[in-house]
Amino acid sequence: MPAKKRSGAVAAALLAVAVLGTAGFTSAPARHGKETFEIVDTMPGPKHARADAYGAFKAKGYFWRKRASLVFPHGRIAVHRHLLSTSVNPPNLSTCVFTESQTGTFDVFYATGWYKGLRYSGNFTTRITGHLKKTGNDQCGSVIVAYRAVTYEVGDIP
Question: pLDDT tens, 45-71?
């Protein structure tokens, strides 16, 4: 076989290997820019809170408290939070509604699936509103009858 035909055949073979070798594999699109995680919990305890991601990428999943992770269909993102301040407002005795807010920073330190290699940090804010059971005029019990905690984690992905 002449050298010209041989080099063309080798190039075609290498192209075929490159195309077939990557068939079935998808890589995640480049992710950079502002990203927000919104975590909404309506019951204290072990139940997973709903989690939505929007900004540099969009995803819906849940927050796994035990692992401090956001679990989405295409991967998991683990977060460390560093609490900087807490503000507590005790129950209003006529309505039995209480509030609490927390602020701080967070670091994404581990990610799997489509988010593998993702590392960034930002700020978080949590606002908790609860309603205790009334036990009499201007008296509140200790049973929580309504609860809602909303956390926003906002950061810039480089």
Answer: 767 999 999 999 999 999 998 888 999
